[in-house]
Amino acid sequence: MTQYNREELSLILQVLAGITLTMGLAFTLSIYSGLTPGFEMIIAAIGLAIIIGCWGGMKHLGFMVTVILAVILFAIYFNFAALLG
């Protein structure tokens, strides 16, 4: 396997891990509290991205960006009814 293939596979797995982690967090919070606390979830994702960034550096940039974008998307998705009314 070439270095390019390893980097691409690593990026794909980072994106999938970020989506899976945030989906689990949003689903768990929606089960326990009825409505997903959107701001708390977004702040937790930003905190996790900062910790991963300081610990692992820029090689995990795909994971950090995916976590932040997915948590914003899931916060809107799980709180859509509250946003309308």
UniProtKB/TrEMBL annotation:
InterPro entries: PGF_CTERM. Keywords: Membrane, Transmembrane, Transmembrane helix. Pfam families: PGF-CTERM (PF18204). The chain crosses the membrane at residues 12-32, 38-56, 63-84. The keyword Membrane applies. Residues 36-50 form the PGF-CTERM archaeal protein-sorting signal domain. It comes from the Bacteria. This is PGF-CTERM archaeal protein-sorting signal domain-containing protein. It comes from Ureibacillus sinduriensis BLB-1 = JCM 15800. The lineage of its organism: Bacteria, Bacillati, Bacillota, Bacilli, Bacillales.
